[in-house]
Design goal:
The protein has a single domain, classed as Neuraminidase, CATH 2.120.10.30. The chain has a 5-stranded antiparallel beta sheet, with no helix packed on it. It has 2 helices and 25 strands. It is mostly beta strands. The protein is globular, with a radius of gyration of 18 Å. The longest helix is centred in the C-terminal third of the chain and has 8 residues.
Length: 323
């Protein structure tokens, strides 16, 4: 079910974010009447999808386009989250039919929303599926889950891709494919290490190459730009504070496409990392990036409230660092 809610607060500053200056800037936004708002994905036209919680405590997905919020509720679901959107406006996300299973991801079901019609997504033989993003070719990435009670939540988690009506997954456990390039050649994701922390990876042709934000104790990439030159996500520093990040891959992505990934080598530069911190926030997490480099996510303010944000880093690239 989709419901429209007209947004009047931010229309003057061009939400959804289709126009505006390219100078570095942040914009905060909330679904009207919500107690929580987070953003998961943004397409080239600036349409944003995400999740909000209403005053009754129920989670809904939403689409923010042309200054208007549209609620997304999968039919019969008790929880809906819209994670990703492509330039055609196709939306992927997750829903739950049983509220007791929300906490552990087993029992999660994916969905694809195209032109108002829902298609159920469930990986054959799996107990849970969480789609994260979709590219313009209709390729969908995310994670599936075997059986939480018997294998452990992360031990039964595999990054997947759904392409041309065919399912495939990484053989490596504790993985989640979160972003995919426009041509499907490179995937960005996260890998659990069994201690409660995560590491980022790039995957190409079945080879997984880990990386971490410098000096972090945990790194979670959540999207990659359509061209593959930028990755966004969040990391935890030594003080256990969460920051968003933007990673420029530079010419590395062209090498990956041409030569593939070498599992014996670390990710080599030139590339650069930049922290993303919403001003005054206690926590910032980036989840989506579009072809223009616009970033969306969520942040927690000093009062403990969660809001969605849009971030335009501008066009200037920082000085590259070698790692």
């Amino acid at each position: 079910m989709l419901r429209n809610s007209v947004c009047t607060i931010f229309c003057a500053i061009a939400l959804s974010f289709g126009t505006g200056a390219r100078a570095q800037s942040f914009i905060s936004f909330d679904v009207p009447g919500s107690t929580y708002t987070g953003a998961g994905g943004i397409n080239q036209d600036g349409a944003v999808v995400g999740r909000y919680i209403d005053k009754a405590g129920t989670s809904h997905g939403y689409l923010l386009k042309d200054g208007k919020f549209t609620t997304i509720d999968y039919p019969g679901a008790v929880y809906t989250n819209a994670w990703g959107i492509n330039s055609q406006g196709d939306i992927v996300g997750v829903h739950y039919e049983d509220a007791t299973k929300i906490a552990n991801s087993v029992g999660a079901h994916g969905f694809l929303l195209q032109q108002g019609a829902y298609t159920a997504l469930d990986y054959p033989g799996k107990f849970g599926l969480i789609p994260a993003h979709i590219n313009d070719a209709g390729q969908i990435v995310g994670c599936n889950h075997d059986d939480g009670p018997s294998t452990g939540l992360l031990m039964g988690m595999h990054g997947f891709m759904f392409s041309n009506n065919s399912w495939s997954q990484l053989s490596m456990e504790m993985t989640m494919n979160n972003g995919i390039t426009a041509d499907g050649s490179v995937i960005a994701g996260l890998l659990g290490d069994g201690t409660g922390n995560y590491h980022g990876y790039l995957a190409s042709n079945g080879v997984v190459l880990p990386f971490d934000f410098p000096f972090s104790i945990s790194t979670q990439p959540w999207d990659i730009s359509p061209s593959g030159d930028k990755v966004v996500g969040f990391y935890t520093d030594a003080a256990k504070k969460t920051h968003g990040f933007l990673m420029w891959l530079g010419d590395s992505v062209d090498s990956i496409r041409t030569f593939g990934l070498n599992p014996q080598l670390e990710l080599i530069g030139p590339f650069a990392f930049v922290s993303i911190d919403y001003p005054g926030a206690t926590s910032t997490s980036a989840y989506g990036i579009n072809s223009r480099g616009d970033v969306v996510g969520r942040y927690v303010d000093a009062a403990g409230n969660t809001h969605g944000f849009f971030y335009s880093p501008g066009l200037r690239r920082p000085r590259e660092n070698q790692q």
